[in-house]
Amino acid sequence: MTVKERTTLFNVCVGIFNIVLGLLLETILIAGCFFILARIPNPGESIPVNVILPFVLFAGLILAMMISIKCITWVINIFNLEDKLDPKAVKRYIKKDL
Q: Residue 81's closest CA among 69, 94, 68, 65?
């Protein structure tokens, strides 16, 4: 397998991982908000769901990106993929100190 083929396969796996992780986190956050809002005694006096939902989705997106970068960096380091992948792809996740 060439470096280009390995990098392509790595990028496809990273994309699938990001989609699954994002959907999982968004589902957990929305379900958590649903259970929290269901416990409020007077739902008419609380913040409406249509106001909270964009903030929850944005928080889930940011959280998914942070977790994804940490996991991908960990995988690159554990499996020593720095020399097996294109340096441009590795540089996206691992920042060398200047």
A: 94
